[in-house]
TrEMBL record:
Its main location: nucleus. SUPFAM superfamilies: CCCH zinc finger, RNA-binding domain, RBD, WW domain. Residues 57-84 form the C3H1-type domain. This is Pre-mRNA-splicing factor RBM22. Residues 1-20, 316-360 are annotated as: Disordered. Residues 334-343 have a biased composition (Basic and acidic residues).
Amino acid sequence: MMKNPARVQRARPADDNRDKAVHNLWKGCSTRKDEKQAKIAETRCHPAKDSGYTRAGKGDPICVFFAQGRCDKGPNCDYWHRIPNKEDEDMLGAAMDVFGRDRFASSREDMGGVGSFSRENRTLYVGRVNTNREDAEKIVHAQFSEFGQIESVRVLAGRNCAFVKYRLRAAAEFAKEAMAFQSIFPGDPACNLRWATEDPNPGARRAEMDRVQRQAAEHLMDKGVCLSDAPYNYPSNYNLPIKRPYGALSSVGASKNTCIDEYPDTNQQFAQGNSSVGGEGEWITYITPDGIPYYHNSVTQQTSWQLPEGAVLAQTSEGQDGGSGHVGASSLNPDDKAEKEPAGLDLLFSYGDESDKEEE
């Protein structure tokens, strides 16, 4: 929490080189034809002495005029007057930059503007840097470190350019506005700031991918999501069944299957919850289409090819063991089946008789 009010950086608003641009409403960007001959900006942001509290509240963006060193509202400004932090970046999300401006799906051809939300870019390209000086890297680091924590600075000797990589994307966005039309060394022309293109180095790409994955994992953990592998929540009396081949069914009366696949034997886990084999009226006889009988307990949901010792079959309404309504078609008495066939044949014959009469 800042105790001092924000300092008025400029007594009155004034135009400078940052306003002398042609804004394209269709592309959402500005172009400057005389950028190479642009004069150095008259104002510059000094966060150490310019930062202070304003009317801004939670979720409000940073003041872009404060970053440029020319905000004339001071404590009456509706935006923050300070360098951005991780909370600002998370609050605004990837769709907007730290100043509340909409980002685009693709970068501009000249890599200028607010940037793209398709890639997390934290590196600035700094052109027109006098790399002949021995202290070039040190001076570049000192100039840009005012606006956020720097991860690396690389000066390319002979190419008059440097690459500054920040730890936060929000800091890179702030520095891009703060150092626009500023000179790195006294007497030098204004530097040219652009977003850096993607590093072609495979090692750098892997490092960036690892960083994004770590960042995503930290974000999920902050939300309370557990990323570690949790064990299965088995019951206390549960034992993993032993796998056996299908051919094991032949031992209980089923036809032997030569399939090499395996299935788990789950009979044990059903029996664990019930120490008894079932009381009277719980076991019902069923018959497979192949004519093989098996038994099922409707209470314990246990199925067996053989009637357990001491078990009692359920009594049907006819007083016979095993429900006749539960048997398959193959369990019907052959005599009963023969008795039922004429009914269908009579219908067929009667239908044929009527058709014959119509023909006559």
